[in-house]
Task: structure prediction
Amino acid sequence: MHRTAHICRRPPERGTGLKTLSLGTLLTRATRALLVTCALSCAAGAHAAWTYTIDVLGGSPTARSFNRAIASNVAAALDLWTRHLAGGAAIEVEIELTDHVVRAGGHSLTSGFVRHDGGREVYEQGVAYEIRTGLDPNGAAADLRIQLNSDYVANELWFDPKPKRRGTIVPVDRTDAVSLFAHELGHAIAFNGWWDEPQDRMPLDYGSTWDLNTYYDGSMLYFTGAAAMELYGGWVPVTAGNNWHIGNAAGAGSDLLGDLMSGVSLYRGTRYEVSALDLAMLTDMGVTMATVPEPQTALLLATGLAALAGLGRRRSGAAADCPRPTCARTG
Result:
């Protein structure tokens, strides 16, 4: 049953070595700087079209000069995900340029009820709900929000001039914007929830599709969905102190540093792709897929991630990703 949507705000992380992000207040739509609508056909020709509406709001005059580049790179990042997803949907994206975040953050603006699991209500992110059901859980309002620090936009991100092709070399002193946006979109689609890290548990009466696919062994949190485990070869390590991400700088999960959804960093000079493991995790979380990763791709996945991790360690610096996506639910 759908009730009033609310936002579940998270405290800053502790002891991860990353700068923490706080979530600011949404700027009024009257400050809209740009409206870009993009449409494409889903890779599976029988499916309906995907359409993207991208609003860029607020920001300093310098940051606003990047509005067109932001919109085109966000559209390319959406393509990286939707080419693997079944069906089609009209995805409304709100980009907020603000000084209330250190770097970037992304999340769905609402959630949708999926099922009861014992005494617990299970919710999925609003974007996933719309993809699965064809129903927009928040109507004409934006489906997801990505917040960007204005200085980060102007001085750290590199905007691909041909983001659909992704053939231009990423400068070694900049973070690829398409990769950053794809990471934040991963949170908006599924990599999110309400796990209470200080208590090492999820709430008693509700949880996200991510939460219900995780297991805490007393010292670490793991993603334990069947498809992801078959592909990875066991429990997938969640980033310590940075839930809703995978991989760690050392120890369990150090082989996942090159994954798009790594919770350690996005390395400069590096272009990231949605991995077979990311897609397997979406499958476990009930996102409707057009392509399903096969177990035999595990070796290719491991090789690719190891190569990316090695490449990242050779770079002069790294741009930390979003420590805390914001999670919302209807309930």
